[in-house]
Amino acid sequence: MDVQPEPGGWPCPACGTTVLWELVSCPTCGAAFLSGDDLAAGTTASAGRHRPGATERVLALPRGGRLVLALLVGLLVAVVVPLLLSLL
Q1: How far apart are CA 70 and CA 64, in angstroms?
Q2: Separation in Å, CA 82 to CA 44, 64, 70, 72, 88
Q3: pTM of the model
Q4: CA 35, CA 45: separation in Å to the nearest integer?
């Protein structure tokens, strides 16, 4: 008696169908999964369609840009908060 194990896979983020590991898109709904290029670029899948949010756009800035942005936000908070408190 030769028992074959059932092939593994992951659930499709769009329809929930179990998709074989070697496939790059869901055979049921056609939603795409990450390829090696996407993983190298650091993107994530969102039901086959990726729409970057505000956090991802900030993280796309180079390290120096994020530092300058953080300093500007910190300076803005350091000036605006005391100004607003003095108006109370």
Answers
A1: 10
A2: 40, 28, 19, 16, 10
A3: 0.34
A4: 10
Q: Say how many domains are in the chain.
A: 2
9: containing domain: 1-51
Q: Is residue 74 located within the same domain as residue 37? A: no
User: CB-based contacts of 72: which residues, under 8 Å, 6+ apart?
Assistant: none
Residue whose entry in the numeric block shows the structure tokens 């030769």: 2
25 pairs with which residues across the strands? Answer: 32
Judge if 30 and 72 occupy the same domain: no
Domain-embedded: residue 37: yes
Q: What is the pLDDT of residues 30-68, one digit of tens each?
A: 888 765 555 555 544 444 455 556 566 666 778 888 899
As a three-state string, the secondary structure of 4-20 is: CCCCCEEECCCCCCEEE
